Structure prediction request, 65 residues.
Amino acid sequence: MVSQVEITSTTVQRGDVIQIGGHAYRVRDLFQLPQGAKQLLFESGELLTMHTRTRLLAVRMSRRR
Prediction:
């Protein structure tokens, strides 16, 4: 099941798909930065830094139990 969720630097997960500038980017890896920020590495190889106040919408696949 697919759901749209609001993500922050504390709730972002690998596999989240974030829409930026009309393009979809899937999070491949996360790196913790100082003061609660995170650097996201997308499957495309691009990077995005999320600060503690950053709020984005993402599509997340929920896992079946």
In short: The first strand starts at residue 2 and ends at 7. The chain has a mean pLDDT of 93. The CA atoms of residues 37 and 51 lie 4 Å apart.
